[in-house]
Amino acid sequence: MTELIETIVKPLVDYPDEVVVTKSMNEGLVTYSLSVHKNDMGKVIGKHGRTAKSIRSVVNAAGANRNERIHLEIV
Question: What does the similarity note say (predicted)?
């Protein structure tokens, strides 16, 4: 799942080397924290959060195939 998030986000940003995804698990919920360069934050969030919502939708759909509850945080 980490690779999926990186594959989606890296083409969107100006500093792809600074894209970091960390994973933590807590009682059946898998949380992925995405951190990017501060200048790329707006590109990842998008206008009115549309890009972030789209990324979360794709990640949640992939998690549904694995029967996992997934939460994506953008740090």
Answer: Belongs to the KhpA RNA-binding protein family.
| Mean pLDDT along residues 52-75 | 93
Angle between helices 2-9 and 50-65 (to 10 degrees): 150
In the numeric block, the tokens 């990186």 are attached to 6
- The correct CATH number of 2-74 out of 3.90.550.10, 3.60.15.10, 3.30.300.20, 3.30.43.10 is 3.30.300.20
Tokens of 59: 């990640």
pTM for the model stands at 0.90
| Helix, coil or strand: residue 32 | strand
Distance CA 9, CA 41 (A): 11
